[in-house]
Specification:
CATH topology of the largest domain: L,D-transpeptidase catalytic domain-like
Radius of gyration: 25 Å
Distance between the termini: 62 Å
Number of strands: 22
Number of helices: 9
Mean pLDDT: 89
Strand order of the largest sheet: 5-19-20-21-22-17-18
Largest sheet: 7 strands, mixed
Shape: elongated
CATH architecture of the largest domain: Beta Barrel
Low-confidence stretches: 1-38
Length: 407
């Protein structure tokens, strides 16, 4: 027989113990042990799962079960600082002196980051990603992108999605640590994590212990960052030093950091030079119908741009470009002059598109980044290039804000 357990906003973890506040609901057995919510995907990391169970058992005053769970975690990883702190609280509660993170093992200034970590890990269990919905940011994956990684900085979580014929499908997710001073990186050394769409560009298997067993550098700064004067380098996905199991949510120099166990799990989903990494301040999930509607709306505009280019009606073709358009070689006026001159010399144009990927760009409302292989053929020139465009929603219409040749 089970009884409901409500964990309301402001409720405290532990019998009269304050650990974290959150606003969700869970279900527990009469003995206090945790039942997974039917819609919640299992946690990929069994130590994280045991930690969460121990805290919820503590909330239900099921101290025997809570201690058994946390003992498993501490035995496996004595360097898991949050687990050590939770165990101290459980032991104090068993002694009839319930406290909240009152262990003398850590200085007071170190307690708040561990509270943040507890809050982030609990939030994942109690507010899990809706696996039957789709992330707004992954509008379409190209055939050569078997997986995509989506980072939600507000939740300290990295989500893995598989490419199911262009549509993202949830696979798993991991707890992560991010830049010490938050997000929206602007300059070298600001210890912030960038917001944007990047690609894993390489794998480093021999790195200093600070980075764990391996690291995956990202393509920061990308072309959008450079357009906006953002500087810096060395933004990686990597692990933790050997003496530390995990780091608090805001504790890196700007990189995205996982436990070494989770980094090993993540590695099988990484395809160097192909795996996109979308880093945003929150993930917005859409039901399948809404997601499909957004995708079709954009594809209609993209298809019209391509068709109008092939028509050689330069005026119609240029109507797809924003008045704020910039390219690597100039503004809209320069682009118009060049295109009118080029198109006047053509008797026919055909534009093929392959490997199209579409990402709703985080941090910029109403913008889509499109990357594709363009197979251009005309009466006097043929070439095949990788092109990237940034489209913006203006007065109800999609228009191109920036366009460049990647390779």
């Amino acid at each position: 027989m089970s009884v409901p357990l409500r964990l309301r906003a402001g409720a405290r973890i532990g019998a009269r113990v304050a650990v974290v506040a959150f606003a969700m609901s869970a279900t527990a057995l009469a003995d206090g042990s945790l039942i997974a919510l039917p819609s919640a995907p299992a946690l990929a990391n069994h130590l994280e799962a045991a930690l969460v169970r121990s805290i919820v058992d503590l909330r239900a005053a099921a101290l025997k079960s809570a201690l058994a769970q946390i003992d498993q975690v501490v035995a496996a990883r004595p360097d898991f600082r949050l687990a050590q702190l939770v165990k101290g609280d459980i032991l104090m509660a068993k002694a009839g002196r319930p406290v909240a993170f009152a262990s003398n093992a850590f200085p007071a200034r170190e307690v708040a980051p561990l509270q943040d970590e507890a809050r982030a890990r609990l939030r994942r269990y109690l507010d899990a990603p809706p696996v039957d919905e789709l992330p707004e940011s992954l509008l379409q994956l190209a055939p050569n992108q078997p997986y995509a990684l989506v980072v939600d900085t507000s939740r300290s979580r990295l989500y893995v999605y598989a490419n199911d014929l262009g549509t993202p499908r949830y696979v798993t997710d991991f707890y992560i640590s991010l830049g010490r001073y938050g997000v929206e990186k602007e300059r070298e050394g600001d210890q912030k994590t960038p917001i944007g769409v990047y690609t894993i560009v390489s794998e480093k298997e021999k790195v200093p212990d600070l980075y764990g067993p391996r690291a995956f550098p990202l393509s920061y700064p990308n072309d959008w960052d450079r357009m906006h004067g953002r500087k810096g380098h060395g933004i990686w996905l990597h692990g933790t030093m050997s003496a530390t199991y995990s780091r608090p949510p805001w504790a890196t120099d700007g990189c995205v950091v996982l436990t070494n166990d989770d980094l090993a799990r993540l590695t099988k989903y990484v395809d160097v030079s192909r795996t996109p990494v979308v880093i945003g301040q929150s993930v917005r999930w859409l039901d399948r119908r809404a997601w499909q509607g957004d995708r079709e709306s954009f594809l209609d505009a993209f298809g019209a741009w391509r068709k109008d280019w092939e028509s050689r009606d330069t005026g119609r073709y240029l109507s797809h470009y924003s008045s704020r358009f910039r390219s690597d070689s100039g503004d809209l006026a320069a682009w118009k002059a060049r295109k009118r001159e080029v198109n006047a010399a053509k008797s026919w144009i055909k534009v093929g598109v392959d490997e199209l990927s579409l990402f709703t760009y985080p941090g910029t409302q109403g913008m889509v980044m499109a990357t594709f292989v363009q197979d251009y053929r005309s009466s006097n020139l043929s070439n095949r290039t990788v092109k990237r465009q940034y489209w913006i929603r203006e007065a109800g219409h999609w228009r191109i804000l920036h366009e460049s040749v990647v390779s």
